Amino acid sequence: MSMVDLDPPRFQPPRPVAGDDGSRRTVLYGEYTVFSVFQPVFSVSHRRAIGYHASLRARDDSGRQVPSHEVFTQAARRGDLLELGRLAESLHLGNFFSFDSDDEWLFLSLHPAALMDTSYGDALLASLKNVGLPPQRVVLEVPEQAGGETTRFAEIIDSLRKSGFLIALDGFGVKHSNIDRVWHLRPDIVTLDRCILQQASEHSHIERVLPGLVSLLHESGQLVLMGGLSTERDALIALECNVDFVQGAYFAGPSVEAVKPQAAQGVLDALSAASRERVAARERTQSARLAPYVSALETAAARLIEGETLTGATRTLLQLHETARCFLLDASGRQIGDNVLPVARASQRAKRFRPLLHSEGASWERRPYFIEALRTPDRVHLTAPYLSINEAHLCVTASIAAQTPRGLQVLCVDINWDVTSQRR
Asked: Which Pfam families does the record cross-reference, listed alphabetically (predicted)?
């Protein structure tokens, strides 16, 4: 173990001192011994560690572990914050290099003040050269709120990227995050803030939209990392919203040593199996719940074929508890007549969205329930839950195309999903 002695309040040039095994470096700062720990970042698809997030740990002269923020607080009081940050990076680089790894990334968290320092990139490149690491092996984690909206900040990020570093936007989803910032900074990786995970764990509707958020980031050109995963439920949420990378105590905690390549394979395989079972169970439950609507829709379509009116054909369908409305489309996707509603079941929500309730002549030609029904007539199709424009609430639409005396028509029923989802 080598040690660098620092004389507060200002840093002195590193003075290595030989230690026990010669493979690890620590830093003395005041009464604290500061050292590196590395938490692996795993690729869900590759089932192995693809990088390590470096962070600082400290112990006092009695060997007691102390929160690293105490060290940074002391450095801030002494005006040493930037210097401590740079020396911490040097410490992480040296210790990471001792892993003798050829491929993994090193994730470094950057202080906003360091990013705005014009000499930062050159200093970091020099440190990398000293230890023999190319910048392509380093992911610089930029706090989502850092730099505000300044053009200068975007230019600095772009310069670091051109030097070979990968850029990760850290903490996306906290406070005033917005997708515009992702588009502006163009990071390689976006790390979702833990608050998103917490809310998804507590609210099923937030868990339901997470895959869409991840998909939006993917389509914008970013890989997605979800950290802070400490339970199986956390990890399952991450897998089911299709993130690329995972990190957290559930997989492996911070350590001074690298993990074995196969460290998380068993956990990830078990999670994949659990996820498949969850999805299958969810589909079985939903199929059972929707079965009465499918059967009633088939009966209604048969009555339409026999020449009955929409109101008469859907009488049984309208009696089912979660039926929101029935409606009929022509072969071009235009609605024939208005919606047929259950008797005396108007909600307060419907009253609030009254301008959207009447749909005669509306065009639904781009809706999946119309497209899929036309693709294979005489068969019921079910959509995934989506936001209905009629009352701005979640619904599932069942549809079937049938040849009636009035030509090819598509019969549809909207099924309230807000209520059914609460019963899961």
From this structure: EAL
